[in-house]
Hints:
- The chain is an alpha/beta fold and 264 residues long.
- The protein has one domain (3-58, 91-261): Vaccinia Virus protein VP39 (Rossmann fold, 3-Layer(aba) Sandwich), CATH 3.40.50.
- It contains 10 helices and 10 strands.
- Strands 5-4-3-6-7-9-8-10 form an 8-stranded mixed sheet, with helices on both faces. Strands 1-2 form a two-stranded antiparallel sheet.
Amino acid sequence: MSNFIFRIKTYLKYQFNKKGPHGIHSPFIYEFSSKVIRDHSRLPAYVKISEAKKYMLSNRNVIETVDFGSGAGNKSFSTYRVRVSELAKSRSSSFKYYALLHRIVAFYKPAHIMEFGTSTGLSAISMALGNPDANILSMEGCASLANVAEGIFHRFNISSVELSIGNFNNVLAANLQKSEKLNLVFFDGNHRKEPTLDYFIHCMTKIDENSIFIFDDIHWSPEMEEAWEAIKAHKEVSLSVDLFQFGIVFFRKGVEKQHFVLSM
């Protein structure tokens, strides 16, 4: 089955299973749905996020990028030259997901955030604007792409993001060692089952019951769906939410383990 057909089938399955707020029987998830996911007000930060995305989509500079994840196929990595605008177009999420990242951070105010996959920097900007006091450590495997992100952070006056450049396998241990706690982790790199689960398990050493993990592209491929199923089943995960592109897990104590498929 081609990846395109697979994603159509999984999207139709998601549409069939998703619920609105009236199908939620967890007070915590009901609040998360009504006050965060389904908050459709126009927040001031959206203007800057939109401007940053528009700027990246107009950036015609050519860089040599390195891909250590699913884009490398069966190789450990691949390199190619590409315009920044093309990367922004192919790797950027739709605005509603950047807006959701911003709302999650603005609502829960996580102080220590880690990101797997800086890419063009738009997700880090969205989170930084949600809590300017947060410390955000963003890891990016490609040095030239990290340089692009650093430029947009400077352009939009984002000073709370620390970039860590290198293959996640090589930099994660040191970054975890210097992290006191992980209040929020955004997994948006590699998109393969085994590395995703490995990063998840390593980050679990720094959580508490208020931590939030967000996984991008959980229905990207059969192996990403397998990773998502394993993450949901982990004994420390108490609540999980499937928003089709994002999978979000919580580690709340004293609640019944539940999984929700929700609409935005």
